[in-house]
Fold this sequence. Notes:
Blueprint: H1 2-17, H2 26-37, H3 59-83
Amino acid sequence: MAEQDGQEREFDLRWAAEAEHKEPSARARMLAARWKENPPGPVPFRADPGPVRRGRRSSWASTAVVLGCVAAVILLLGYVNFRAPY
């Protein structure tokens, strides 16, 4: 009996897929009704965002800060290792 239900279900899915007329989704109907009265304007595929400026520092200043922090950590670890008793 389960096999027969599977065959009926397969037939129903095939029948639905081969249907000539397919009803649009609720969202598609809503947008079609809205755009009939007020059509949307043209929208570019991908807008050009332009340059992003987050601060006044340049890239070399940020690099100098990072390298300075790394050097400070290395010196601190060397000092702690030098002062540690053996």
